[in-house]
Predict the structure.
Amino acid sequence: MTTPFLKTLLAATAGLVMTATIQAQAADPVKIAYNGDISGSPSAESGQIGVLGIGAAVEDINKRGGVLGRPLEFLIRDDLGQPPKAIQNMTDLIDREKVSVVFGPTNSGNALAWKHIANQKKMPVLVSSASSTAITEGPASGNYLFRVSMVDREQAAALLAYVKKNPEAKSVGFFVETTGYGQAGLKDLEQIAALHGIKPAATEKFDARDTDMTSQLAKAKAAGVDTLVVWAQAAPLGHLVRSMEKLDYFPKVFTTWAASFSGFPEVAGPKLMEWPVFLTTSSERKSDASKALFERIGPKLANPSMFWAASQAYDTVLLWAAAAEQAGSLKGEEVRGALESLNKPVAGMVKTYEKPFSTAQHEGLTASDYHWSRWKDGKVVDFNDPVLDGLQPADFKK
Amino acid sequence: MLQAIIGGLTLGSVYALIALGFNLTYTTTRTLNFAQGDFVSVGAFVGLGTVGVLTAALGADAVGYVWFYALAAVAAALAMGVLGLPLYLAAIRPFAGKPGMSWVVSTIGFGIVLQSAALSLWGLGARMLAPPFGDEVFRVGEVGFRSQELVVMALAFAILGGFDIAMRRTALGRCMRAVALNRDAAALMGIDVPRVMALAFLASSALAGLSGVLVAPILSASLFMGVIIALKGFSAAIIGGLTNPRGCMAGGLLIGLVESLTALWSAQWREIMVFLLVILVLAMAPNGMFGRKLVEKV
Amino acid sequence: MRTETATRPAPFRPAILRAVPALGVGAALVALALTLTNDFHLYVAFMAGVYYLCASGMNVLAGYAGQKSLGQAGLFAAGAYTVALLTTRLEVSPVLALAAAPIVAAGVGVLIALPSLRVKGPSLALVTLAFGLVVEKLVTEWTDLFGGAQGVYGIAPLEFQGEPFALRHWVVLVIVLAVATHLLLGHLLNGRFGRALLALQSDEIAAECAGISVYRYKILAFVVAAALCGLGGALVAQQNQYFNSDFVTFHLSVFILLLVLLGGAGNLYGPIAGAAILTATEVFLAQWPSVQHFIYGSMLLFALYLMPTGVAGTIARVLPRKAVAEPVVTGAPLTLSRTTDDPAGGPLLEMRDIAKAFGGVVTADKVGLRLHAHRVHALIGPNGAGKSTLINILTGVIPADSGSIRLAGEDITRASAHSRADRGIARTFQNLRLFGAMTVLDNVLVGAHARIGATGREAEAVAKAAAVLEFVGLAEHAQALAGSLPYGLQRRVELARALAGDPVLLLLDEPAAGLNPRETAELGQLIKRIGRLGVAVLMVEHDMGLVMGISDEIVVLDRGIVIAEGTPREIQTNPRVIEAYLGREEAPADDEADGKEEERAC
């Protein structure tokens, strides 16, 4: 009874192998791919918008003749935020589809789950929205992960530099969610706080699905905390300020770019959303190119504040294309080399990149590219105060 | 402390609503809708959509937002209730009353399709549904609460009470109880059993949709919010005693309270506590706290 | 859940021969894997293998034992974190760590089994689901130990010639493990173990009365499922050399159950079909992210409607049936192997002062009973007299409130139902309790469960079962499904099942109920022949013709009290008996008031 069934299975497997070979031979366009969460969790929003940005960049590059004279073909893989799926997609893209570069992912945890595969297979990966510090830490033999995005460590350095400098901040509390995002952030916060000699008076955690943080806040209140540094995604962050209102307890809140995600203003509401101060990469659209891109994909965004996800993703494609042109090759090793020594400036959406990467430095954006921001009348605007003006480069410990 | 109790009872009463839905479908068909969470989420978004449409059509201040919200709640209950029928026909009917648990697979499949459809319609982000009586925090001594918490509790208790009475007093309720007690006998007495089963799914899905609209102003609506709410509703139904509607209600309140009181101590262990409690209760009382023992005749 | 064709191969073929096809297929798969050069195909093959391991264990639990668990992700995690922590924290060798993983997972499996023993259906689903969620939360929140979502790096992989395993090595390893698992499970499930699980899935009380320790077998099933799932988790963690809490999701638990249900629960080949098809589907659909959820969801929605027995079950139905009808015939007449004489100085069974009350209703009041080998006893009495209660107390289905029971001089008052069956007390039920989806032969073999013993003298047992079937005149129906037989024959299958355990005492609860006069007469002859084999028979019966015709001794019970004892002649003339039967109005109760309250709703 087994044999016929297994025969079919074997035949099917053999068929799969053959189609794969044929596809590889017929490859004329250059395949590039996004592998990240675009449907599995609320944070998939930045993945979807990243895909829009990459799609726009692919269109633009193809219009001007592609890369190395070949058009780009853009593949999308959804990892649902699940590591096994992410790993499977990665081997699919590298070994079957034979793509030349991978963009993504959405969640840091998945990047950590497959980054060794990219490094082993010499596959350049450009990250545009996952911010965990560890992602771009690579082996000495060659690190293939590059990033054009916020980085946890840099954000923690900036936020704590401000807290240290601010005379009104006497007692600090760390509030983090229990996801990989929050845990990694807490690690960075604690290490940098130690450098500054800051001892948090309270460290509280909450689940990303929590909607009532009054009990954690009550503990912080009891401990006399006047300044909170928060590491959480948009929706729980919104619920945190709502819970603050419930307790009538309003410590200063400093947080990450997550506050610019559309979920935060939705949940917090027009009044409370103006309370936290946070960091973004592009609080306003300054260049013409950036405005033009916004015209194109803005209508597809649930909230214009998420535009950064598109512009950063757009820039990753430009940087990779520039590196491929410079290397005159699509081979991973050579593209990596070119990325680490880009000799021409690349005019991107977020900024113009001049030698963004080196062998030791794989971050396209650093603290100097961050903007202090806050919400005002439904828009993200620059935040300014005397403490900020007084910050010196020496204050940024990391 | 009191703050935690109010929060716990609020969510608990929502769990109770969902648990009641599970009770209705289980007693009549011996099946449960594992996609109930998606009905909750989608219900919230139907509510959001209704408010949006009404505001666009009539202007924000036409009749007062309370009416918009009320209509949204009705729309969500109706829409989800109607969706309960295809759920029953496609995922339940082929398996109702048969041994095995094939309906687990089919209802999960229905949920995936429903959620995917909703995602392509509404997107991934969290959205806030404005509460009907304003979002201000009321303060009594140290305790702060929002009007919506009271609205949820009041409405939930009213519905639970209404159901309790309806099941005992109305003809339809008696039909449902008859089918629950003995399906074959009910059929012999001329009760249209498939119709009662379909109605049970309609009511259960409508309750889920309504729950979605009720909690959306508190929890913020996202298409991922339903799963955990439904899981706790499921837990409530089972530890209360799946066959006992009053037990289901009590289970819901208990879970809500345990959850918020654990949060006072350490919020991150909250769900561990809730589900450990579930395991413990069922290890002690396999039929739940208020489910009467089912003795097999040998 | 089992297919209509019995998938058991002919029982007499040596195990080695049975293993040949699987070994051949395994070797072919290994050869194929070695020709694959594309890491993607190798990875897919690896994951399919891992999913097969998880599914095959789950099949034992869900398909055979009928325990639908929704918490397998927790066990997957137990295995994965075992290798992760052992190799990174304690620097245990990778091989040892991999070997430890299923053991640790099995231990965790016992933990989840214990609260699950008494719950059924949705409650069982919830207990296991809650367990899975607790593990998921634990590995996420307890970051000091498990690393949370940041995960554990540097998990040591297995090595081949000093180098870490390449993907092809992992694939070969998984194939070897899968084939070994398939053969081992095939051996277990086609024998006593598999029958016991199917029996308890079908009817726990009947299984218990056939000598199967229901709790122990359930725990065993949980342990097998846990060990294999833990092995799968360990392989994934070691292959990837990194593991984090995002791997452990409710989705994974659902997926593992799906593998089994879609593949074909209770079918040895179901997990193979499930793992192959679901892995392939996922990979295939991944190319169209926008529609994959719709297609996947619709597949789940309709798959079991179209294929109620899963893919493997459907294939088995389409394929031509193997000619299984090897006549199960032995020349030997039936003999029972236990000593079947009364012990010196007393009756075979002595019941003293047994009392039982349900709430306020007294169904047994200081009942004493003495049963002798070689004799047919009848227990009669009006409705509600407490006859069935007495049988249930004797077999251990219901505990007595007070009093004592001795079998062959040994006190068995506190013994469990299955250990009483083991000691030779067999029974039939007032309402048939056959394992309807199993063959007649398998039903009888379940009856012989305790007799076969763990040594697995399967061939002997089959011969004995054949003799039993011949004895009751069912030899030609051996391979039919028990549930498909006409009512009268089903009654006889139950009798055969009881006889297969080599009973010293056979309890028959209304054996003639529903039989026509001819069948009743045949039954009478059969019972007499059973008595002649040396068995003590106690029968509860309303058919006075039958009772008076074949009984050596009759006990009359009324309202929980023995009102008369004696030969048929003595009983027929006993005035108290006549009064009990004729002199009073009887409430039209449906038989015994055994405290059954089938309380369902509201």
User: Anything to note?
Assistant: The longest helix of chain B spans residues 2-29.
